[in-house]
Every structure is written in C-alpha cells, then in structure tokens.
Specification:
Chain lengths: ~300, ~300
C-alpha cells in the first residue's frame, strides 16, 4: 500500500523522526539546519540564502497543491466509510511558530475538512476532568485533518516544570498518553507529532521583534519572560516527553525551526509523505451514472 | 465608526441586500448577473468574459489579503475583551457552490480564527433537541469568523417542502429565528447571510458535470434528483424564509451564483465591507514594552 513517488528525494520523515525509546537529546539536535531540503551549493552565501528561501516558498506552494488534492481524497473516502484521519500535533516553546505553521501549512488545505484546536491553560471545567478529556473532544472525524496548536503534551510539560502535580502523576501520564495514542492509531488516526525546535537566542530575537511592533503586542505577555527563564527545565521536560512518547504508532518529528521557511517546508513534507503513504481513494458512486444522466437529460 | 474606503465603488451589500419585510420574489432576481462588479465594456463578448474572469480572480486575491488583515484585527481584539464576531451563513440549492465558497473565500482567512460547520440532516441526538440547539453549539467565539455551510434555515426549508412537521411549527420557526438572531446580534454577532441563487438550468449543467467525472461521484447522490424535482417548492420555501427573516439586525444577501467567479468575488466583498464597518482594532499591550525589552537584552 502507499505510493512511493519520491525515490529521488530522502524521506523527511526518516530524517526528522525521533528514535523510539530512550530520552531525547534535544541539545544535540540543531535548531538552525534544513535537513532534506536540497538548496544546492551557490557561491555567494547571501545569494544562496535568498534563492533557497524563494525556492522553498515556491516548493511549499507546490507541496500545498499536492496536499490539497490528497486531503480531498481523504475527505471523500471518509464519506464512504474509510475511518482514517490525520492528526497534526504542534508543540514548541513560545514563538517557535505553531501559529505560523497553522496559517501557512494548513492554509493549503480546504478549511472545511480541517478541525483546528488551540489548547490554552485548561479552564475550570476542563480541570474537573481527566487531562485527556478535552483533547478527546477535539479529535478529527473520519476523513478530516485535525490540527492541535499545543495538545495533551502540555500536561506533561507545564505541571512538571511548575510542580503543579506530584511526580507520580506526570510520570503516569506518559504511559496514559502512549496507551491513548495507540488506541486511536488502531482506530485509524495517523499521528504527525511535530516539535518545532528553536534556539534560546532565536526566541530572544522573536520576542524583541514582537516588542518592536505595537501591532504584535497582543501576542505578547510578560508571562512569556517568566516561562523563558525556565528554558532549561522546559527543554528537560520536552526531552522526557518526546523520548517517552515517541512510539512506532505515533512518532515525534523534531523540526529545526529557527528558519520559518524551512519549518513550513518541512511540516508540509511530513504531511505530504504521510498522506501519500495513506493513499486515500475516491469512492466509486453507488448509483448508475448513465441512468442518472439520462434522467437529467430527459427532464 | 467604520472606515469608508469605497466611495468610488457601490456597496455590494446595498446591491444584494434583500429588503426587510414582505416575501422575497426570487423568480424576479436573476441568477446570471454580476451586480457591482465593474468589468468594463469590451467589444468582443468572449474576450470581455475572459478578461472579466481574470480580473475577478485577481480582484478576489487582493480582497483576500485585505480580508486576512481585518480578520487578524478582529481576532486580536477578541483576545482583549471585544466580544464581536462574524457569522457567514451560506444557503442555496444543491450545487449552488456553498462548499466552493468555503474553500475559496474562507481560504483567504487564517484557518485558526475560523469556526466552520457543515450542517447535514440532523442526527437522532440533534432531533431530540430544539432545532436551534445544534446551531447554538457551533457559533463563533469572540474574535472568530464562523462559517455555516447550511444552517438553521434548513429547518424552515426541508420540513416545509416534505411536510415533516405541521405548518404551525415551521411558521413559528420564522419568529424563533428572528428572535434568536436579534439576541445574538445584540451580543456582538454580525450576520452575513448569503443565498447563493442559481438557476434550474445551471443546476442541471453542474449535476451533469459531476456525473461526467468519476472523481466527483462522491459528491453526488440520487437523492439530489429527488430534491431537484421539488425545485418550485424549494424556491417558494426559500422566498418565504428569506422574506420573513431578512431583518435589520441580520439581513439576507442574494448573490447571483451561476458564475462561480462572481460568487467568490461577491461573497469576498460582502465580508470585506462588513469587516471594514466593524473596524476592529489591535489592542494595546497591558505591559511596559521598554522595560520588557531591557529585561530581554540584559539576560
């Protein structure tokens, strides 16, 4: 099953997939590289950079058209009993580009077939339930592409860093997440879990850029600096979460995200490779097309 | 309040808005015209047609960028207590282009700020509630753009045409809809209710086109012909619904929809004029930007 049209190109899933088992060594993974993107070797560095950026933008647009066609097939198959659906999970530190990825990458899809949910700090009603409850209610239906801007992984990050729940509780959550994701994968959910990996210095630049533009102030909260001060704790919490929960059924991909164009290109490719492997098919009609045509023409 | 940047162009809202009160005379409203679209007067009909189409596509793309900027302002304002939100309601006969409008027009927006819902025949759980229940649960939150592909108006169309409920029930529903929409308008919902008006012959062409392409068969159901046979009844039911429920708080717009490019352009314009009048503003930050910048630079 699955088409294999990219024999000339390396699989970005293979390049970015976190190995299963063992903690993730995030510090060893660069945030400013562009794995799998064939930008060629130009002589002038600046020129190369500019050209690569333009090619990436054009490449992402071309990927977008292919993604849109595959999404339509997934959606069409879903109307005829195919239970499969896709779930893109986006995690990353503040300013890592989760919102930008939704806007640019998901912007290629037909919005009617997408189920997008941004998870913020849980509400009082949500906290009265198990942490997976609110996530469960936001899952894509058959044929849909779900997009989580933050997710259930927040519940093994923030509580751990800030000591909001006892250690046995967040330790238990890794197992609960793995069991829950396995159950959904068995039911037809294909996970594309993406960690947008940015560097400490890059985050500073992005926060400063937000401060420089009053129109971006609404995206900024002084709390962002409080969280930034806990950077090493968050990296440790991420390393543990990604390591414990990168399973065969639902692997994590680590996308170097200091460059926005590469981030968009890489996430587009991850989705494309995944959808091509799923290879959803248009259902055949359950009616007699010739007879129906005759009926219309005989009106 | 509201910017007025279109003094040179007629308001498409004014051109397409259905008058308040009295039944709608749908038969008198053409489905193949392009009100408000200044396509100029070329000598050759074919050439004019092609050019107009190209200009419209380019125009819709330009409108799209302006729509995206206004949507971001609406969303940003919503994060700071502005309760306003937009609700696009799409109604029309089969093949009138509701899905295409969502794909093309809503595709300009940041999907993260959209709440899209397609209403199909009510499920058993939905039928166990008042007909407005399922619609209520799908409303946009503050700052969002809601999009309904079909809506509560189905409940004054299908039951009336097929006699599923007694006349006093569907008669009562017009009043219930008006009261409900008024309540929401008072709470900050701006309605853009659009009837995509296609002709009987145009529907035949579109159904035949679907039959000609096996990849489109999943969009087709033999039931579509059964409903088409009730065309006059549906036109009557639409005329009553649009007439009874075109209020000052939530007017109906009738968009001639035989031409897809005009439909996309007109709906884009309706949304643009509406958002420009709402004129949402970026909130100012509630923090000291200078001090925050200093804190970041002193790390």
């Amino acid at each position: 099953m699955g088409t294999q049209p990219h024999t000339d190109q390396p699989s970005v899933r293979d390049l970015l997939r976190l190995p299963v088992g063992g903690p993730a060594d995030l510090a060893a993974l660069p945030t400013d590289t562009t794995p799998g993107f064939d930008g060629g070797k130009a002589e002038e560095k600046e020129r190369e950079k500019k050209e690569r950026k333009e090619r990436a933008a054009a490449g992402t647009a071309a990927l977008g058209r292919r993604l849109a066609r595959l999404q339509e097939r997934l959606y069409a198959a879903g109307t005829a009993g195919d239970r499969r659906r896709l779930l893109l999970v986006l995690q990353g530190m503040d300013t890592s580009g989760k919102g930008g990825t939704v806007k640019h990458v998901v912007g290629h899809f037909n919005p009617a077939g997408c189920r997008i949910r941004a998870f913020k700090a849980p509400t009082e009603a949500e906290r009265a339930h198990h942490f997976l409850w609110r996530v469960d209610r936001s899952l894509p239906r058959a044929g849909e592409v779900g997009i989580f801007d933050r997710s259930h992984y927040e519940d093994v990050l923030v509580p751990r860093v800030h000591g909001l729940v006892p250690e046995p509780v967040w330790q238990r959550r890794y197992r609960e997440i793995n069991a829950w994701e396995q159950m959904l994968a068995d039911d037809g959910v294909t996970f594309v879990k993406v960690f947008l990996h940015i560097g400490f210095d890059e985050q500073r630049e992005r926060l400063l850029a937000r401060l420089d533009r009053p129109r971006k102030h609404w995206k900024f909260s002084p709390d962002d600096l409080t969280e930034r001060a806990r950077w090493p704790d968050y990296q440790e919490a991420y390393a543990a979460a990604l390591g414990h929960c990168s399973s065969a059924a639902a692997p994590w991909y680590v996308v170097p995200a200091d460059r926005k164009w590469y981030r968009n290109w890489a996430v587009s490719r991850l989705l494309l490779e995944t959808l091509e492997q799923l290879d959803p098919q248009y259902p055949s009609g359950t009616f007699d097309a010739e007879r129906t045509r005759a009926r219309l023409l005989a009106e």
